[in-house]
């Protein structure tokens, strides 16, 4: 999918505030509200916009602890890694999961109420028969930046 400069401008606006009306966005990008609606529909259908959601402050809902975790598998058995990926996608406390290069296989970010909660979840993860060999956890003292926005380049992007 090719993105023109107006698509990129709409994406920047939506990342800043997805609750704006098509009319408000249209005024900014010099299009009609119906043209903006058509573009937004296409961006959603093409999965450029994956999801529109509220970003909740974890501290305000009692989730005070962020834990950065690296995991290593005993072997590179694809079925175990697929089971692990399913587990990570299902686990509500996992805020992100990446397959990585280096000494470990995956990197996860957990957001939990407290260390006891994390210990329970990590024990469940270790005992779930996923073939994990090593888990290394780093407790965050403070979140400096947290976000989902991506840099929307001015040059055309195609896939």
Structure description:
The chain is an alpha+beta fold and 159 residues long. It folds into two domains: 41 residues, Orthogonal Bundle (Arc Repressor Mutant, subunit A); 82 residues, Lrp/AsnC effector binding domain/regulation of amino acid metabolism (RAM) domain (Alpha-Beta Plaits, 2-Layer Sandwich). The chain contains five helices and four strands; from the N terminus they run H-H-H-E-H-E-E-H-E. A four-stranded antiparallel β-sheet has the order 2-3-1-4, covered by helices on one side. The longest helix is centred in the N-terminal third of the chain and has 13 residues.
Low-pLDDT sequence parts: none
Order of H and E elements: HHHEHEEHE
Q: What is the 3D shape?
A: elongated
Number of strands: 4
| CATH architecture descriptor text of the largest domain | 2-Layer Sandwich
Q: What composes the largest sheet? A: 4 strands, antiparallel
Number of helices: 5
Helix/strand/pairing category: alpha+beta
CATH class of the largest domain: Alpha Beta
Strand fraction equals 15-25%
Based on CA atoms alone, the radius of gyration comes out at 20 Å
Distance separating the two termini = 6 Å
Provide the CATH superfamily of the largest domain: Lrp/AsnC effector binding domain/regulation of amino acid metabolism (RAM) domain
CATH topology of the largest domain: Alpha-Beta Plaits
- The helical percent reads 25-40%
User: Order of strands across the biggest sheet?
Assistant: 2-3-1-4
Q: How many discrete structural domains?
A: 2
Q: What is the mean predicted local confidence, pLDDT?
A: 93
């Amino acid at each position: 999918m090719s993105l023109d400069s107006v698509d990129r401008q709409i994406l920047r606006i939506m990342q800043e505030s997805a609750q704006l009306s098509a009319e408000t966005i249209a005024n900014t990008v010099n299009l009609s509200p119906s043209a903006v609606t058509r573009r937004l529909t296409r961006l959603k259908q093409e999965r450029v916009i994956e999801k529109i959601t509220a970003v909740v402050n974890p501290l305000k809902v009692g989730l005070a602890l962020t834990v950065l975790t690296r995991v290593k598998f005993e072997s590179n058995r694809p079925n175990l890694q697929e089971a692990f990926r399913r587990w990570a996608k299902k686990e509500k406390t996992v805020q992100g999961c990446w397959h990585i290069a280096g000494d470990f296989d995956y990197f996860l970010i957990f957001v939990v109420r407290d260390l006891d909660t994390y210990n329970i979840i990590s024990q469940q993860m270790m005992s779930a028969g996923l073939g994990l060999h090593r888990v290394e956890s780093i407790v965050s003292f403070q979140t400096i930046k947290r976000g989902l926005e991506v840099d929307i380049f001015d040059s055309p992007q195609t896939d």
